[in-house]
Automatic annotation (TrEMBL):
InterPro entries: FAD/NAD-bd_sf, GMC_OxRdtase, GMC_OxRdtase_N, GMC_OxRtase_C. The lineage of its organism: Bacteria, Bacillati, Cyanobacteriota, Cyanophyceae, Nostocales. Belongs to the GMC oxidoreductase family. Residues 80-103, 252-266 form the Glucose-methanol-choline oxidoreductase N-terminal domain. This is GMC family oxidoreductase N-terminal domain-containing protein. Its cofactor is FAD. Keywords: FAD, Flavoprotein. It comes from Nostoc flagelliforme FACHB-838. The keyword Repeat does not apply.
Amino acid sequence: MTEYDYIVIGAGSAGCVVANRLTEDSETTVLLLEAGGPDTKPEIQVPANWPKLWGTEVDWAYSSEEEPHLNGRKLYSPRGKVLGGTSSINGMVYMRGNRRDFNHWQELGNPGWSYEDVLPYFKKSENQQRGASEFHGVDGPLFVSDPVAPNVVSQRLIDAAIEKGYGHNPDFNGAHQEGAGLAQVHIKDSKRQSTATAFLLPILDRPNLTTTTHAIATRLLFEGTRTVGVEYLHNGTLHQVRVNQEVILSAGAFDSPKLLMLSGIGPAEHLQAFDISVVVDLPGVGQNLQDHPQVHVAYQATQDLEVAPTSNIAEAALFVYTKSRLDTVPSLQTHFGPVIFVQPEYARSGPGFTFAPSITHPLSRGSVSLRSSSPLDPPVIRMNFLESEEDMQVLVEGIKIARQLAHSSAFDEFRGEEVTPGADATSDEAIRDYIRKGCDTDYHVVGTCKMGVDSESVVDPELRVHGVEGLRVVDASIMPVITTGNTNAPTIMIGEKAADLIKASDRISKQAALTNA
C-alpha cells in the first residue's frame, strides 16, 4: 500500500494552502485528494460569471431540509466541487473579519488565535495591490486588489452612507470595520484568484506532491485510535493509502463532519443508528452550524447599468451596529451589487441594484448529520435560520436601513420601482412575512467541527481531533463562532496557521525520536 507523510482531503480554500506549505520541505510527501475535477471550466476565471457556476459539475449543489422558520423552504447552498473548492465559485470578496472575532476565539479557550496571533498569517498569504502596511503583506501568493471598474451605483452606496451618517471605510481589513466602501477582491489580471490558482497550480510539479482529482474520500482508517490512512473512491474503484504522520481533513463545513461520522467519530447514538462502529464518541461533530442569513432589497434602475466582466457583482459593502443588537462588533453587513439579485419567484428582468443585509453573528444554530452510511449520499443539513427572534429583529432593521440608503439623494437618478420586499411591505409584520419568504444563506457555512476544549468541541486549539491521534481538521468548520463578514479569507488564514502547527509538531516528533535513539 502506498504511503505518504501527510494526506490532505479536499483541495479547497484551506487544503490548497496546507498542501503548498507542507511541500515546501522537499523531504515531506503529501497526497492531496479532491472530489471534483481540475478548474478548467472557462466561467471560473471570469469574475462576473460566478452565479453561472451554481448547479453545474463544479458545484455540490447542496440544499437544506425544510426550514421550520422560513415557511418550510429548503435553502440552496452551493459548495465548490473542483480544485480551489468554493474559492473557485464564490464572489471573490476578500474580507478578514473583525479583530474582536479572533480575540473572542481565544477567550473561548483557544490560545494562539487572537487577532495579534492570526494577523501575521493573513499578511503571509497576501500580495496586496496597495502595498505593505501594518495590516497588509505583499509577499504572499494571493493577489488582493481593488475593484477594476466598479459600477457607478456601487460608488453611490458610499455617498449614501456618508449622507446618512454611516461613514466611508476605504479598508474593511484595516484599523476598523464599520462604514461603507468598495470591497477588495482576489482578482488578478481580470481573472479569479482561487486558492488553486494562487497556491496549488504553481507547485503541481513538485515531486513530493501528488494531486488526485475525482477522488471521493469514503472513510478514514484507524488502528485503535491512531489514524493510519484513507479510503477513497476513484473512477469507480476503492483505494486505500497509508499515512506516516497525519491526515488533514479540509473538506468543508458540510463534508468534514460527514466524513468524520462515516469513519466512526461523532455522536455515538447517531452513528449506531447507521451501524457505524464508534471510534470516538464526539457529540459536537456536525453541531454548531452557522451562516450569515441574508435578505434582498432590490430596485429596478431608471437607466442601464453595464456590469463589467471584471466585476464580482458584490462590489460594495456596509457594516453597521443596529439598535436591536448592541454588540462589540457590527451586527449587520450589507452587500451591494449593480444587478437584481433575488429569489427566483421575485425575478425581474432589466437593470437594477440590490442591497443584501445579513446578520453577522446570528444566535440560531444548525446542524449536519448523516442521511445514510453511504459516502455518496449528501448529508442532512438543517440551517435553522431565524429560530432566534433577535435574529429576525436584526434583519427587519437591515431592510429599513437598506431602504433608507436607497431613498437618499445619492440614488435619486437611478432608483426605480422597489422589486423586493415591494412598496406595499411597510409594516413590521409585512417585512417579517417577506423575510420568511425571502431569507437566504450568504453561503458562509462554518462551525461544524468546533475548535475548543469544552464538551461540544471537536478539535483542540492545534486543530487535532479530540480522542484520536494523527488527525486534524483544517477548514471553516473549526470556527467556534462565525467571523464578521465573508469567510473565505479567514479560511485561508486557518490553512496558513495550521501548516505551521503541523510543521512544529513534526519537528517536535523528530527531536523526540533523536533523543530516544
